[in-house]
């Protein structure tokens, strides 16, 4: 299982549209076995094509514009957008299945994450109720 | 009537307003329509005004204490952070364009200004960022841009706007169109635009220059021929009327067609039938005809060079294209369009026209119209690879027309003087030599005009324009 995290410095990049760095994490039986860093292309269609080739389980990122979301959806890339926080903590939360908690939600995006949850995610609401 | 102080609805301030107080600063920030936020040394948001909440969609309570990039989410956040640059250099950034992405994924265009934030002792305590929502401006800009383009045609001039307004309706009809305009005004471009906007857009667009072919060749080109129609006709050849089936046939320079061929064209337009050379049966012309000419066809009818009945068949709907000299406001836009195209085609990075080159283009009369402008820019691209196109890159025809001296203009000053001279001479001619009227028209004082005329060696006309015919000298 492979997941990608858009990165700026030590945190999740605030905007996927302009992010340059991607951290790929490959897990086997819940444990990371390989982590690599990649530079993303400037051209968005090129980016999407490259991401589509990576056989990703999920792409975790910060804010993302709707046109890019649509391009990623067309490339069958599952997205967890509007995530904020330290990359290591976000990776850990993803492994533990606690990424949908509000601790990793970008300011002003809670309603949106909840809405996504209603459309199939479910984990954000569950996490909020648990909190 | 109550005096303002007696009006119960007006609440008066009991204490004097102190603009330096923290409460006053907060009140001012809250009343602004621009978003404002401040950050501390660790890039965490320390204040976030009401407009910032409205533009970003982030409530203040969620923004405070969070890293500014995660709240703001602009296209500059990260390596291009404007506030980071300001804090590094100490210099403010004003009006930098960017966009932010809100929780709905919408891109909101903004302009950003930044400043260093200092305490009362002058110690840097963070930074302040002011941002303005440009969504409405951007929408207006896009609307204006939309209005200045129809298909491949570009113009902002009122005369062309009138043409743009009627083009969609003309395109929707199946009537024959006559496009009239001087050479190089874009008659074929109008025809192509009409085709592209028409219900026949999926069919072919076939153009024929009637002035470029001898009469006999034009006839076989238009109508085609059958095998054996004449010596060398070994097989059938479809004509342009047949090739344009289901689409549009553009007959350029229709005014050049011979009287004999005019009769055949008239039949096609009247009956929608034509016969290829050597054919025994008529074929149906399933085409929409757009004709173009630089002649005044009515004048040619009066002179007996063009059939009146064909003129009325062709002139069902007429589009008249103004020459470039009558729409010089389009020059910068057209020049920019050509520069963009040639940059793409030739892989160059020409930034545009420098102001003096543009002045020269504006002063020229453009007898060859848009085509001549395109050629002038293409020529300039040969000499100019990067930077801006200057006077030295423009063709002799332009630089020569703008000066009267036989010797070459080598500098900016000479070029300006040449332009001044041209403007003064033209204005004097328009005002019949009346120097006061000339000065008024040129927007300068009479003394300035006299001084310039002396310096440029422009002789005062023998008759100064105030003289009335028959008046005593």
CATH fold name of chain A: Nucleotidyltransferase, domain 5
N-to-C terminal Cα separation of chain A, in Å? 28 Å
The DSSP helix count of chain B reads 20
Poorly predicted ranges of chain B (pLDDT <50, ≥5 residues)?
A: 1-10, 404-409, 467-473
Q: Which CATH architecture of the largest domain in chain B would you pick?
A: 3-Layer(aba) Sandwich
In CATH, the homologous superfamily of the largest domain in chain B goes by the name P-loop containing nucleotide triphosphate hydrolases
| Strand tally of chain A | 6
Quaternary state of this entry equals heterodimer
* Structure summary, number of beta strands of chain B: 18
How are the strands of the biggest sheet of chain B laid out side by side? 2-1-5-4-3
Write the element-wise H/E pattern of chain A from the N-terminal end onward: EEEEHEHEHHH
Shape field of chain B: extended
Characterize the main sheet of chain B.
5 strands, antiparallel
Helix content of chain B: 40-55%
At the fourth level of CATH, the homologous superfamily of chain A is Dinitrogenase iron-molybdenum cofactor biosynthesis domain
> Could you tell me the radius of gyration of chain A in angstroms?
14 Å
Radius of gyration of chain B: 33 Å
What is the percent of helical residues of chain A?
25-40%
Characterization of the model:
The complex is a heterodimer of chains A (131) and B (473). The relative contact order of chain A is 0.16. Chain A has helices at residues 44-53, 66-74, 87-96, 110-121, 123-130, and strands at 2-8, 11-12, 21-28, 31-39, 58-60, 79-80. In chain A, strands 1, 2, 3, 4, 5 and 6 form a six-stranded mixed beta sheet that branches. Helices cover 37% and strands 24% of the residues of chain A. In chain A, strand 5, helix 2 and strand 6 (79-80) form a beta-alpha-beta unit. Chain A is built from five helices and six strands, in the order E-E-E-E-H-E-H-E-H-H-H. Chain A is α/β, with parallel strands linked by helices and 131 residues long. Chain A has a single domain (2-100), classed as Nucleotidyltransferase, domain 5. Chain B contains 20 helices and 18 strands. Chain B has three domains: 28-137, Beta-Lactamase (2-Layer Sandwich); 150-322, Rossmann fold (3-Layer(aba) Sandwich), CATH 3.40.50; 328-456, Helicase, Ruva Protein, domain 3 (Orthogonal Bundle), CATH 1.10.8. With 473 residues, chain B is an alpha/beta fold. The termini of chain B are far apart. Residues 1-10, 404-409 and 467-473 of chain B have low confidence and may be disordered. A five-stranded antiparallel beta sheet of chain B has the order 2-1-5-4-3, sandwiched between helices. A five-stranded parallel beta sheet of chain B has the order 9-12-15-8-16. Chain B has a two-stranded antiparallel sheet with strand order 6-7. Chain A binds chain B through residues 8, 11, 13-15, 17-20, 62-67, 69, 81-82, 84, 106-112, and chain B through 56-59, 62-63, 66-67, 69-80, 101-107.
């Amino acid at each position: 299982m492979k997941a990608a995290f858009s990165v700026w410095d030590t945190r999740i990049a605030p905007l996927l549209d302009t992010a340059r760095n991607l951290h790929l994490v490959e897990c086997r039986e819940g444990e990371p076995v390989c982590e690599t860093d990649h530079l993303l292309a400037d051209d968005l269609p090129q980016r999407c094509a490259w991401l589509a080739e990576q056989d990703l389980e999920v792409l975790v990122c910060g804010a993302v514009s709707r046109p890019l979301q649509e391009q990623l959806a067309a490339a069958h890339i599952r997205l967890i957008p509007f995530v904020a926080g330290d990359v290591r903590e976000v990776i850990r939360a993803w492994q533990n299945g606690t990424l949908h908690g509000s601790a990793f939600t970008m300011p002003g995006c809670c309603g949106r994450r909840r809405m996504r949850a209603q459309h199939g995610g479910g984990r954000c609401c569950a996490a909020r109720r648990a909190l | 009537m109550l005096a303002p102080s007696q009006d119960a609805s007006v609440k008066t301030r009991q204490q004097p307003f102190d603009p330096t107080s923290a409460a006053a600063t907060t009140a001012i920030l809250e009343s602004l329509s621009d978003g404002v936020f401040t950050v501390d040394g660790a890039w965490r948001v320390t204040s976030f005004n009401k407009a910032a909440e409205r533009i970003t969609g982030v409530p203040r309570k969620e923004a405070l204490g969070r890293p500014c990039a995660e709240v703001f989410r602009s296209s500059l956040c990260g390596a291009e952070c404007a506030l980071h640059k300001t804090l590094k250099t100490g210099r403010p950034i004003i009006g930098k364009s960017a966009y932010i992405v809100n929780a709905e994924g919408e891109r909101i265009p903004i302009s950003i200004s930044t400043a260093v934030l200092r305490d009362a002792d002058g110690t840097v305590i963070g930074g302040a960022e002011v941002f303005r929502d440009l969504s409405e401006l951007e929408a207006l800009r896009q609307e204006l841009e939309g209005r200045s383009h129809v298909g491949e045609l570009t113009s902002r001039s009122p005369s062309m706007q009138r043409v743009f307004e009627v083009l969609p309706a003309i395109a929707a009809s199946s009537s024959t169109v006559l496009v009239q305009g001087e050479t190089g005004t874009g008659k074929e471009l109008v025809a192509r635009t009409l085709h592209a906007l028409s219900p026949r857009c999926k069919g072919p667009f076939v153009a024929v220059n009637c002035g470029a072919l001898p009469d006999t060749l034009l006839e076989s080109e238009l109508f085609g021929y059958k095998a054996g129609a004449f010596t060398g006709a070994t097989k059938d050849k479809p004509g342009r009327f047949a090739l344009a089936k289901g689409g549009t046939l553009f007959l350029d320079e229709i005014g050049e067609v011979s009287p004999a061929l005019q009769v055949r064209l008239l039949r096609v337009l009247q009956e929608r039938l034509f016969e290829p050379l050597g054919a025994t049966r008529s074929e149906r012309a399933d085409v929409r005809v757009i004709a173009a000419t630089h002649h005044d066809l009515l004048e040619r009818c009066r002179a007996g060079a063009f059939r009146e009945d064909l003129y009325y068949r062709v002139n069902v709907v007429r589009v008249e294209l103004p020459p470039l000299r009558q729409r010089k406001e389009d020059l910068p836009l057209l020049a920019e369009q050509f520069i963009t195209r040639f940059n793409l085609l030739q892989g160059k990075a020409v930034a545009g026209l420098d102001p003096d080159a543009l002045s020269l283009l504006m002063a020229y009369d453009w007898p060859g119209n848009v085509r001549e402008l395109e050629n002038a820019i293409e020529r300039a691209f040969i000499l100019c690879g990067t930077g801006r196109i200057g006077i030295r890159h423009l063709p002799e025809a332009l630089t020569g027309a703008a000066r009267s001296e036989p010797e070459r203009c080598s500098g900016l000053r000479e070029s300006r003087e040449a332009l001044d001279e041209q403007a003064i001479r033209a204005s004097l001619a328009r005002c019949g030599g009346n120097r006061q009227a000339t000065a008024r028209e040129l927007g300068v004082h009479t003394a300035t005009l006299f001084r310039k005329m002396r310096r440029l060696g422009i002789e005062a006309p023998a008759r100064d324009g105030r003289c009335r015919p028959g008046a005593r000298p």
